[in-house]
Amino acid sequence: MIIDMENVSLKREGRYILNDISWQVEKQEHWALLGLNGSGKTFLLNLINAYAFPTTGRMSVLGLEFGKTYLAEKLRRRIGFVSSSVQNRLHRGDNAFEVVLSGAFASIGLYDTPTDEIREKAIGLLKELGCFDYANRLYETLSSGEKQRVLIARALMADPELLILDEPTNGLDFLAKEQLLESVERIAERENGPTIIYVTHHVDEVLPVFENTLLLKEGAVYDSGDTTRLLTREMLSSFFEVPVDISWNKRRPFMMKQ
Ligand SMILES: Nc1ncnc2c1ncn2[C@@H]1O[C@H](COP(=O)(O)OP(=O)(O)OP(=O)(O)O)[C@@H](O)[C@H]1O
């Protein structure tokens, strides 16, 4: 089991930010996590990455039981996490290749000397993510779309068992977004690849590979399970509290206000 949460709540400043969350993610199930601003997505990810601990409830991630041992470091080495907070912590002055290489050391910068094997792997990932052409460019000079691909390549360097992509298409134009989604799809289809959790506000990013979806609303699981069961007009109209229509094109859902 990749994630096993039972009745998990998280309290901050006297208020429940997450309430009675139960969620099981099995190996190689890919999940979309859908919620509006303020629904608690960031805190849920913070729990999974052991940056926060449940106030009540029981949880384990990658088989490590929270509260039993000091697990944060051990756990994070096995999780690839791509989010704007990771982006902000990167070293200024590194080029794209160095940023990817640094993923092998579970550190932000590049302190150890990479072996030839590690360099080969980084080159392979740069190619797979379509960022080889700008491998020598300074990371901070790349466009948002290019940066995201580099960050995903970086996250894959350590062969994570779980890959969490937190709103990876933020700020991307149409083309960059579609290219990124294609890359995500390829990673999801890899044999023995990581289990993916894809966090988004946007229904149209729920790719066919995300066979499961968790709808998070006001800190609670509104519903979870089979994506095609959840992404219907009835379900999403009541989830968003506004009448919406859903249309499917090439197995992707598109949502419009009625
Ligand atoms: N330190 C805190 N104490 C109390 N409440 C907080 C604290 N930090 C955030 N919140 C509240 O917790 C709720 C959940 O926040 P969270 O950042 O997880 O939402 P989110 O789903 O990630 O939103 P977004 O899509 O905007 O990133 C919000 O209502 C937020 O205002």
UniProtKB/TrEMBL annotation:
<dbReference type="GO" id="GO:0043190">
    <property type="term" value="C:ATP-binding cassette (ABC) transporter complex"/>
</dbReference>
<keyword id="KW-1003">Cell membrane</keyword>
<comment type="similarity">
    <text>Belongs to the ABC transporter superfamily.</text>
</comment>
<dbReference type="InterPro" id="IPR050095">
    <property type="entry name" value="ECF_ABC_transporter_ATP-bd"/>
</dbReference>
<keyword id="KW-0472">Membrane</keyword>
<dbReference type="InterPro" id="IPR003593">
    <property type="entry name" value="AAA+_ATPase"/>
</dbReference>
<dbReference type="GO" id="GO:0005524">
    <property type="term" value="F:ATP binding"/>
</dbReference>
<protein>
    <submittedName>
        <fullName>Iron complex transport system ATP-binding protein</fullName>
    </submittedName>
</protein>
<keyword id="KW-0813">Transport</keyword>
<dbReference type="InterPro" id="IPR003439">
    <property type="entry name" value="ABC_transporter-like_ATP-bd"/>
</dbReference>
<feature type="domain" description="ABC transporter">
    <location>
        <begin position="3"/>
        <end position="243"/>
    </location>
</feature>
<dbReference type="InterPro" id="IPR017871">
    <property type="entry name" value="ABC_transporter-like_CS"/>
</dbReference>
<dbReference type="GO" id="GO:0042626">
    <property type="term" value="F:ATPase-coupled transmembrane transporter activity"/>
</dbReference>
<dbReference type="InterPro" id="IPR027417">
    <property type="entry name" value="P-loop_NTPase"/>
</dbReference>
<keyword id="KW-0547">Nucleotide-binding</keyword>
<dbReference type="GO" id="GO:0016887">
    <property type="term" value="F:ATP hydrolysis activity"/>
</dbReference>
<dbReference type="Pfam" id="PF00005">
    <property type="entry name" value="ABC_tran"/>
</dbReference>
<dbReference type="InterPro" id="IPR015856">
    <property type="entry name" value="ABC_transpr_CbiO/EcfA_su"/>
</dbReference>
<keyword id="KW-1278">Translocase</keyword>
<keyword id="KW-0067">ATP-binding</keyword>
